[in-house]
Amino acid sequence: MIQILFTAQAEKQIAKLDRNVRLRIIASLERLREAYPVGDMRKMQGYDDLWRLRVGDYRVVMQIDLVTASITITVIRVGHRKEVYR
Asked: Which residue, 37, 72, 82, 86, could crosslink 65 as a Cys pair with Cβ 3.0–4.6 Å?
């Protein structure tokens, strides 16, 4: 079972996005819930527990906790590729 959680910051960032971009990001996260791992997902350099998911020009930065039988994905940041890593 895969659970996806959002930080308050990530919720605000998603709410500010254009409707089409927001729907693409949510659809990518739903695909991730159904079949982990999926899409262009990579471990971020310099961090032990952070991953990024590429959705067009936007990035979803997340922390993945692989505890016991369930997987918990916490979305930390969402933004354009030029701004999300700052």
From this structure: 72
